[in-house]
Amino acid sequence: MREKASVSSAKISIEANPSPVSEAKRKELLANPGFGRLFTDHMVMIRYADGKGWHDAKVMPYGPLQIDPACAVLHYGQEIFEGLKAYRLPDGGAGFFRPEANAQRFQSSARRLAMPEVPIELFLEAQRALVKADSRWIPEIEGGSLYLRPFMFASEVFLGVKPSSEYIFLTIASPVGAYFKGGAPAVSIWVSDKFTRAGPGGTGEVKCGGNYAASLLPQAEAIENGCDQVVFLDAVEHKYIDELGGMNVFFVFDDGSMVTPELGTILPGITRDSILTLARDAGIKVRQQKYSIDQWKADAASGRLREAFACGTAAVIAPIGSVKGTSVNFVIGNGGPGILTEKLKAQLTGIQRGTVADPHGWLQRGI
Ligand code: PLP
Ligand code: COI
């Protein structure tokens, strides 16, 4: 579709922040980082132009961007992003979990939005360079990590509706704790029956900002109804579970088997894929198939469904305790975390933090 980048990798220059946050202030901030409100001293910026490829790669002080009001992204939303975490390892270094999977998904998102692909090695180098510059921002609190947000937007100054000829690829870093506030034992889910997230042939399987813009109203509806997250049904029959606003979903049954919605219109989560692998390693039967809201309700009532959980980079694994909607209102199991959910969470987070065996070589040393 588009010409490939002219360089497969670019040397990333470093401009250190002349006035980084003081050590005392940083420590104070890192004691309670929350999610997505704090940012580190640096960011990585790499530019792209048709005919020139990727250029001007630099680590630079974190700060506001100046963009033209006619910049294409502000009008037509040509933007994609990723989310991955850097973890403090037991030996004091820092690690990433399957970062090449994020790099690949970023390429697939770019293709769908008619954007140039960031070469895998350049994407990875940008993440490493930022973590190296800002590793002191990895929170030491339990469950803490440095959430990296690579993103790319159309920067051509033009109001015609066409793929931009220029792009800016940035990575920023945010020290984070738990995604869900309050440390509740399980999250509550609101079933959106009015809105859908993605239809066949749409952009549901890629990570573009537009998907999230469209999820905000149904998510607000979830909050209004006292729930933590919205779950979307399929756009064709309004029957089958797709995924949550920012997470995939799994169901655990009384025979020990698991189900997760099949790929197609949902984001192919890296956490989802890792859980499928860990479950299969453990001899658990996992099926990727359609699962309807009616079935969910019936299985929760009969006790056939023992557990359900949401999963994603930001949320990790979050047990689902209850489900509410205009025509449903039910509790799963005892409303708290299930045994298999907790077991998978312990194994996954152990691999991510370098404290349990990593048979698939998922943990990559960042620094
Ligand atoms: N589904 C949506 C809509 C998401 O935003 C996310 C988060 O990235 C996920 C699923 C989970 O994906 P991953 O496990 O790769 O973070
Ligand atoms: C992530 O898990 O990385 C996401 O992008 C989800 C978002 C809701 C923070």
Can you write the helix and strand succession as a string?
Answer: EHEEHEEEHHEEEHEEEEHEHEEEHE
Helix content: 25-40%
β content, as a range? 25-35%
Which ranges are low-confidence, i.e. pLDDT below 50, for 5 or more consecutive residues? 3-9
What's the average pLDDT?
95
Radius of gyration: 21 Å
Number of helices: 8
Structural class: alpha+beta
Number of strands: 18
Q: How is this fold's topology laid out?
A:
Blueprint: E1 13-14, H1 23-30, E2 42-49, E3 53-61, H2 73-76, E4 79-81, E5 84-88, E6 94-97, H3 99-112, H4 120-133, E7 145-154, E8 166-176, E9 187-192, H5 209-224, E10 229-233, E11 241-244, E12 248-253, E13 258-260, H6 270-281, E14 286-288, H7 293-302, E15 305-312, E16 316-324, E17 329-331, H8 339-352, E18 363-365
Parallel strand pairs: 1-3, 9-10, 9-16, 13-14
Antiparallel strand pairs: 2-3, 2-8, 4-7, 5-6, 5-7, 6-18, 7-8, 10-11, 12-13, 12-15, 15-16, 16-17
Helix pairs in contact: 3-4
Bound molecules: pyridoxal-5'-phosphate and 2-OXO-4-methylpentanoic acid.
Notes on the structure:
The chain is of the alpha+beta class and 367 residues long. The protein contains 8 helices and 18 strands. α6 links the parallel β13 (258-260) and β14. α3 (99-112) packs across α4. Mean pLDDT is 95; it is low at 3-9. The chain binds pyridoxal-5'-phosphate and 2-OXO-4-methylpentanoic acid.
